[in-house]
Design goal:
Belongs to the multicopper oxidase family. Keywords: Apoplast, Copper, Glycoprotein, Lignin degradation, Metal-binding, Oxidoreductase, Repeat, Secreted, Signal. InterPro entries: Cu-oxidase-like_N, Cu-oxidase_2nd, Cu-oxidase_C, Cu-oxidase_fam, Cu_oxidase_CS, Cu_oxidase_Cu_BS, Cupredoxin, CuRO_1_LCC. It is built from 4 helices and 33 strands. It is mainly β and 569 residues long. It has 3 domains: 119 residues, Cupredoxins -  blue copper proteins (Immunoglobulin-like); 180 residues, Sandwich (Immunoglobulin-like); 197 residues, Immunoglobulin-like (Sandwich). The strands form 7 sheets. Strands 11-10-13-18-15-16 form a 6-stranded mixed sheet, with no helix packed on it. A hairpin with a 5-residue loop joins strand 1 and strand 2.
Length: 569
Amino acid sequence: MELSKIGLSLGFLCFFFLHGVLACSTRKVHHYSFIVSETNFTRLCITKSMLTVNGQWPGPTIQVRKGDTAFVQVHNHGKYGITIHWHGVKQPRNPWSDGPENVTQCPIQPGKSFIYEVTFTDEVGTVWWHAHSDWSRATVHGAIVILPARGTTYPFRKPDAEKVLVLGEWYNGDLKEIIDKATESGAPPEESTAYTINGQPGFPNNCSKETTYRLQVQHGKTYLLRLVNAVMNEEMFFGIANHKITVVAQDGAYIKPITTDYIMTSPGQTMDILLIANQPPSHYYIAGSPFFDAGFIATYDSSNTSAILEYTGNFAPPASPPYPSLPNIRNRAAADNFTKRIRALASRAHPVNVPKKIDTKIFMTVGLNEMFCANASCGGPNGNKLSSSLNNISFVTSTIDILQAYYRDLPGVFKKDFPDKPLYVFNYTGEVADNTLYPVQGTNVTMINYGASVEMVFQGTSVQFGEFHPMHLHGYSFYWVGTGYGNYDETTSPKTYNLKDPPEVNTVGLPRNGWVAIRFVANNPGVWFLHCHLERHASWGMSTVIIVKNGPTKATSIRPPPPNLPTCS
């Protein structure tokens, strides 16, 4: 992915240490221009117009070093309003540039522009950016490469080269028409037609052999693959035929190296992977296939996507390159066997600081629901509309952004009463009655004091049916301290926590009919979106908002809004 950078400047940060010694470090300021517009693309012998940034799919890669700042001017030349989210970037004290539509900003209208200030702090490795308006992120997305801070290096052998790989989805139909039709009817949205690697479906998909993405490598060299899961609605298995891979980072933080034949990655997650080109020079397939764990028979894209690992040199290419052996589409054990190995690096240079004494506890059920339709007139189960909820509240997006309403104390936009536990306690993963099938609708937020140590437990439910949920919190990375199947138990479940080296992530997988526990310190004041990163679930209301109050000083309070903030129409 080529860079679309229009300028670079230097910033100097200086600190006085003991004995009057002045030390300065250089942090760069980068400038990018994103032009959002419709572009024609042809895949699977189908040509269609779709929304892109700078005419690219995937979009341009942003490259910075740890601690840098990027200003990204987004020009909307499309047909509809758009926002951009910087997934995995904490944006300290600056939720104005976080991006979710009508949560922290109103959309950039057609013909208008907005400059995002993207502030990098302790993130390192790979994160990504994507649209946060309706389903436009399917084609409006790209990688963010965060190199180590100047004067430092990787905690592993420096690779000979680095490559970005983006897992995505291709839809033959128009995305806005697909989600608008599903929203109106209440039926499940149409599934994708194919998965892609760097925008190409590859073998065995129709009309895709000649355009398959090819990753060239030299024998004996080591490559850092920066993998972004930009898929909309499915978890993915990923692997390379005849090659071991070693995962060294996830979600912008280093982990203990995991050498494996395959990985499982959820939508929203990123991974840094070392590949040693140590096999006989030839061609080898790189492949991605879906992992679908749901307690019902549903439609989903069951296809595979592939690219080719192509060694340089003189050899006869094989007629049929070897294909990786990836787990079966419903192989939960294979998914768990990978994810349970993920541990923070927890070194002196990259320590973990897990909160031990908890001030605020939040227990949140995650469920799939229905909205009643008179005379069974809708297209979902039982003639109703499909819905989803957190603590049995299905999120309703306001017409004015919540951040502005909170900052300006505007009444009637949201309620500060999201419950810290379910209002109705039941056997969450067992046989459930219909009294939890129909959620209430509302724009309810959770208020958290600045500096509080927070534990949040997500509890999956079998309401309607259980499913895997990748949960993403804006504005924070958090420690994934525990997970399990069945109902969370306040006495026994915490005894299984990993408080020594839990990974620090921004998106965590909640297993079907299971639970997951996270911890973080609420040290970033602002309005922050919390939602499932399966797009269909978020569209149905599986979201809420966390508001972290201002601290006691200006330096611990939300920054003032930028002068060019998009207005709400």
